[in-house]
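Quick one before lunch.
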Amino acid sequence: MNVKNVLVCGAGMMGKNIALVCSSVRDCQIAIQDIRPVDVLADIRINCKELLEKGILSSDALEERLSRIHFVRDLDCDAAARADLVVECVFEDMELKRRTFAALESICRKDAIFCTNTSAMSPTEIGRDLRHRERFVGTHFWNPAHLIPLVEVVKTDAASDETVDVVMEFLRCAGKSPALCKKDVPGFIGNRMQHALWREAISLVEHGVADAETVDDAIKNSFGLRLPQLPPLMNADLGGIDLTWRIHTYLLKYLEDSHEPSPCLSKLYNEKKLGFKSGEGFYRWTPEEIKRTNEDLNSYLIRMIYGK
Ligand SMILES: NC(=O)c1ccc[n+]([C@@H]2O[C@H](COP(=O)([O-])OP(=O)(O)OC[C@H]3O[C@@H](n4cnc5c(N)ncnc54)[C@H](O)[C@@H]3O)[C@@H](O)[C@H]2O)c1
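Model of the nicotinamide-adenine-dinucleotide complex:
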């Protein structure tokens, strides 16, 4: 299938940037739907400010792409009936997502492909009640979706190989680096690894081995630096499988393996120390520091991805 018409459901933080990503496929028309009014084009222009300033995207190219993105309030619209592919980005709520897909199935073409951008829930469970489960996959974009190259394509228990191939190819055409997650496992690929690391980092703080800043700095100043060039499995080969085997034989039994959030994390949560949202988490944050940290992250990503 040649994807030429896309519907994005949910015009929040992820949906808007995903619409922008889809618009990089030539001639692709994108409808983005939300139950609340959203000035999608204005928000996308704000998100692209730095890309424009650094000459990575020209304003003509951006305006041409925006001319193919249309906001709609009502799901039952021509754009939905025309859609080759739908990406659902509504709130992370199982019942809401199931209701959305049930509605989509009654409006969309029988051969339309459905994708859910769920962060953590099982795409197989979300699509459980659909008639055409073979056309349903997870597409886990990472925030900010217009910058981060990875999209995990999660094969549901019933998804066909053809559906997976069409979605992977569409994402490649949109300039993304899709990764096929062949089984619908919690956390998919990226978040399983990310949270294994976070669990250990939190455990080190909790057990008084080092404070939060020291733990974060240890990563920033060591394997964090080389990770993009030397990811774990390549690193194991570089260091030697024999060395990795010996380290694991000795070390693994000492690593954190709790199946619950750590008491330290739960304490912060219960005290409503929620990080940026409340101004305190593992660190204290002023509004200026929060703004600067967000801006620095975007600039860093643009430097890493585009070299500018
Ligand atoms: N925020 C992240 O970092 C991130 C990363 C990857 C995946 N996700 C996932 O993407 C999805 C969206 O997350 P977000 O951060 O964009 O959330 P968000 O709260 O910014 O946006 C959700 C949007 O869905 C809309 N919505 C709610 N009910 C709707 C309905 N019935 N029909 C149409 N629109 C409806 C809301 O009005 C809102 O604009 C979630 O499933 C989330 O878990 C989020």
